[in-house]
């Protein structure tokens, strides 16, 4: 039997070794600076935790722009931060969501991925939307084009749009959240400042925000303001490292240039060897993060709202083709301990602040 030539085998082994070495070098290059810079991130978050109580009393609105005359909220100076929103038939939920993230969080651009709403959400007027229409682009998908895991399709489309229209949109970070999820920055830093901190670490391509799941607050019908009406949340379960609470779940803000594909609706695979981290610089490799912390970043999840709205949610379904049932309602209403969570009230319309008490 003839033996294979030695030189070809040696060459193949050499090439394979070289490729592995290059991959390791890329990983180590990305990690270079991570250890040295992440200490600064952790130091910042630690000092932030000490300042939360005082900062919340005299905090300026966390956006990169300036206030207009009279102290009204300012507008984002650019599209550094954007939101990809998969949504269907939530016409009444959209205005407060847009207003909060545009004026309070400094989100400059919104990709509204309309999964077959009737009527289409693009028919809403600028007055109904509550923010400038040029900060929004609507993309409508006919119901016949709905696929099983539509949310993934819509997320991938958002990235394609952002990359293809970079000259016009020019967005660096994109948040993948739902219309019942509100970003908050409890400490003295703005959302932009926090993301700019993480941008200084080359290895970081995504940031994971822990949920703060709200209960119904006893409301039976839709309330004028989500932020004002729901001030009770499920317990974080710190005694068991958060293992018995859905507040372990995260949603993500991802660098547009480093997005690869969704791992699930909560977390993402990134290009190269880039990583996602929590607010303290801790690596997050899944849809869960513990211990649960929200000193710098939080995601308030108004998962059920009033009983009437939850019934609408069950009938509407989701972009992941799964339907909520009363078991989810019971999980948040009766199976988890409840705690007060009034921190979002500082963003509530003054006229609505009085509705924060529990309804019968």
From TrEMBL:
SUPFAM superfamilies for this protein: Nucleotide-diphospho-sugar transferases
Domain of life: Eukaryota
First-listed, main subcellular location of the protein, grouped into a coarse class: membrane
Key words of the record: Membrane, Transmembrane, Transmembrane helix
Subcellular location: Membrane
Protein name: Glycosyltransferase family 92 protein
Membrane-topology annotation of the record: Single-pass membrane protein
């Amino acid at each position: 039997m003839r033996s294979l030539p030695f030189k070809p085998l040696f060459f193949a082994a050499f090439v394979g070794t070289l490729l592995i070495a290059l991959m390791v070098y890329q990983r180590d290059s990305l990690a270079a600076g991570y250890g040295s810079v992440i200490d600064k991130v952790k130091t910042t978050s630690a000092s932030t935790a000490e300042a939360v109580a005082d900062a919340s009393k005299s905090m300026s609105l966390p956006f990169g722009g300036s206030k207009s005359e009279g102290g009204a909220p300012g507008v984002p100076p650019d599209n550094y931060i954007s939101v990809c929103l998969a949504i269907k038939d939530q016409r009444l939920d959209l205005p407060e969501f847009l207003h909060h993230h545009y004026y309070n969080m400094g989100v400059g651009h919104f990709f509204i991925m309309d999964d077959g709403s009737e009527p289409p959400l693009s028919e809403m007027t600028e007055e109904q939307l509550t923010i400038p229409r040029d900060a929004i682009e609507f993309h409508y998908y006919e119901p016949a084009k709905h696929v099983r895991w539509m949310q993934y399709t819509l997320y991938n489309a958002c990235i394609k749009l952002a990359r293809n229209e970079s000259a016009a949109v020019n967005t660096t970070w994109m948040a993948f959240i739902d219309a019942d999820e509100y970003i908050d920055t409890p400490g003295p830093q703005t959302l932009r400042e926090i993301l700019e901190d993480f941008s200084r670490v080359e290895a970081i391509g995504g940031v994971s925000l822990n949920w703060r799941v709200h209960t119904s607050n006893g409301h039976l019908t839709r309330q004028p303001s989500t932020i004002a009406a729901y001030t009770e949340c499920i317990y974080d379960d710190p005694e068991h490292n958060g293992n018995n609470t859905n507040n372990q779940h995260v949603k993500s803000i991802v660098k547009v240039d480093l997005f690869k594909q969704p791992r699930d609706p909560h977390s993402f695979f990134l290009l190269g060897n880039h990583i996602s981290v929590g607010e303290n610089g801790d690596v997050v490799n899944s849809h869960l993060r513990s211990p649960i912390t929200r000193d710098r970043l939080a995601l308030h999840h108004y998962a059920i709202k009033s009983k009437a709205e939850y019934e609408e949610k069950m009938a509407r379904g989701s972009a992941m083709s799964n339907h909520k049932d009363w078991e989810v309602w019971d999980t948040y209403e009766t199976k988890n301990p409840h705690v007060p969570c009034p921190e979002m009230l500082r963003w509530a319309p003054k006229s609505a602040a009085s509705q924060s008490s529990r309804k019968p």
